[in-house]
Automatic annotation (TrEMBL):
InterPro entries: NTF2-like_dom_sf, SnoaL-like, Steroid_delta5-4_isomerase. Pfam families: SnoaL_3. This is SgcJ/EcaC family oxidoreductase. Residues 9-121 form the SnoaL-like domain. It comes from the Bacteria.
Length: 149
């Protein structure tokens, strides 16, 4: 049985992913705490809801972004009012029907419980390239493909 905080943190993560998949910069930025940090796939680091919004908005306006397919692997507490979530993610490029292994990622979210519920303090999207270990890329890709079948 999962603890209530796990469901709440997973819902927060899902709201972030759903906003990305809808190409909704405002919806994404609103999931973050006031000084929350987002570290993107390319290593870009933005801090705070407004900066995150201003960073993501032109990406959605200027690029056909791929939706995420994600699988939460672990959620655990960090004290009474904080938690860490680990997930794996793949993307299905526009016009395609399968995951592109080259952009698989590990996603880490640190959430804190504030007055108005859970908010993201840190979201990091790290490439899962497994240099020199193609079998790990294929293993992750296959695990994510199971979610779209």
């Amino acid at each position: 049985m999962t603890a209530p905080f796990q469901n709440e943190v997973q819902n927060l993560y899902q709201q972030l992913i759903d906003a990305w998949n809808r190409r909704d910069a405002k919806g994404m930025s609103e999931q973050f705490a006031e000084h929350g940090v987002q570290i993107g796939f390319d290593g870009s680091k933005v801090i705070g809801q407004e900066e995150i919004f201003l960073h993501v908005k032109p990406i959605f306006e200027e690029h056909p972004t791929a939706p995420f397919v994600t699988k939460v692997k672990d959620i655990r507490p960090l004290g009474n009012d904080a938690a860490i979530l680990h997930a794996i993610a793949g993307m299905i490029p526009p016009g395609k029907s399968d995951i592109e292994p080259a952009v698989n990622a590990h996603q880490t979210l640190v959430a804190v419980k504030k007055d108005h519920g859970w908010r993201i303090e840190l979201f990091q999207n790290t490439p899962a390239q497994f240099h020199g270990r193609p079998e790990l890329v294929e293993e992750m890709t296959e695990e994510l493909r199971q979610l779209i079948r």
